[in-house]
Amino acid sequence: MADGPRAPGGPEKGTPEYDWLYGPDPAAPGGADDDLTLPMAAAGPDATRLMKTTPVDSNQGDPRTSTAPRRAQQPPGQPPVAPPTASPDEPRKKRRFGAWFWVRLVLVAWLAFLVAVPFWAWSKIEKVDAFPDKGRPGDQDGTTYLVVGSDSREGLSAAQRKRLGTGDAAGERTDTIMLLHTGSGPNLLLSIPRDSLVEIPGHGTTKINAAFAYGGPKLLVQTIENSTGIRIDDYIEIGFGGFVNAVDAVGGVEICPTRAMKDPLANLDIPKGCQQADGVTALGYARSRHVYADSDFTRVVHQREVVSAVGHKAVSPWSVINPVRYWRLNMALDSLRISEGTGPIALGKFGWAMTHLSGSGGMSCTVPVADSAIHWDTERSDALFKLIAADETDKVGKSLCTAKGY
């Protein structure tokens, strides 16, 4: 096919000219034909631009059968309203606040609760200087805790003292004295009867619980270390109110008296046999000394029974799953007094060890005694103390570890 007309300058430029679409040039001799297509330059730059087309509905003329979308009627003089469009962020927001978002939010809040509550409770625990400055036994393997149940009425109202049956006694003594040893062998919980006759530095030979009344935790620690040769690593003290709160926090404990117990001085009246006890009943059960003929010896057995039961229930999964129980259990720590230097890890190990005593690979016993006065059996007690100090509780036999010390 022959080339069309070329641009001015002739073929030497080498570029075909496409300015004309059809027909002759209207400027050529003879004039222009109105029916001919004009050159692009003459028609203007938009002459060949295509117009948008709209599909035509064959039924458009009939509004009843037409399928074409109807345009909303606008009030006269008002600008047209653009159709609503969905924000591109809306689907993203729905995904962000979906079911998994709320599950994660609850989990984060729960973890924060589990962490914050113990920290808050820990800040409320009172720290005391419990250790003598000199004359102590050297470092020993394992860890030995001194656990003291004080008869302090501090912080108790008159109504609370009446409810707990504590009376209005002045001063402060130790109703409960126990050593808990943990180490390479079985855990061993050793009760020291409160009426044990020992040498108290500066006060001669008298009942061991008087050491606390004379000089507080420091003199009690010194008396026990001098009498046993066992080094105390951590001191833990709990009063009447704290004891009751701890029992109630775990939902009560089971006690199994071997006879009916009615003791007005301990606010106690319970039948024989295993039964569920709340904090007030458990406190009376652990304090009563006027029902059994052997008095203090049976009482120390009851004390270990209750303390072990509280420890066992405290480390159950329910203590974490149930937020109310978790809160109450941690708030019960508010009534503790512990030695300076005893940290949360040491306290946690103590609680764990209390769940691994008799019936679970551990041992529970009373200092060997020679008579009801209460003088210790020198030979048997010394042998037991040496095994504990050497962290050799696996060598403690039944002759040294008995429930009542005789």
Topology:
Elements: H1 40-43, H2 90-96, H3 99-124, E1 126-128, E2 143-150, H4 158-164, E3 174-182, E4 188-191, E5 197-200, E6 204-207, H5 210-228, E7 234-238, H6 240-249, E8 253-255, E9 261-263, E10 268-270, E11 275-277, H7 279-287, H8 296-314, H9 318-321, H10 323-331, E12 336-339, H11 344-353, E13 363-366, H12 378-389
Parallel strand pairs: 1-12, 2-7, 4-13
Antiparallel strand pairs: 2-3, 3-4, 5-6, 7-12, 8-11, 9-10
Global mean pLDDT: 78
Largest sheet: 7 strands, mixed
| Cα shape | elongated
Number of helical runs?
A: 12
Q: Which runs of at least 5 residues are low in confidence (pLDDT < 50)?
A: 9-15, 18-22
Spatial order of the strands forming the largest sheet = 1-12-7-2-3-4-13
Total strand segments:
13
Structural class: alpha/beta
Q: What is the N-to-C order of secondary-structure elements (H for helix, E for strand)?
A: HHHEEHEEEEHEHEEEEHHHHEHEH
Radius of gyration: 46 Å
User: What distance lies between the first and last C-alpha atoms, to the nearest angstrom?
Assistant: 130 Å
Beta fraction of the residues? 5-15%
Q: Helicity range of the residues?
A: 25-40%
Protein model, in words:
By secondary structure, the protein is an alpha/beta fold. The chain is 33% helix and 14% strand. The strands form 4 sheets. The chain has a 7-stranded mixed β-sheet with strand order 1-12-7-2-3-4-13, sandwiched between helices. A two-stranded antiparallel sheet has the order 5-6. Strands 8-11 form a two-stranded antiparallel sheet. Helix 3 runs parallel beside helix 10 (323-331), helix 6 (240-249) runs antiparallel to helix 10 (323-331) and helix 7 packs antiparallel against helix 8 (296-314).
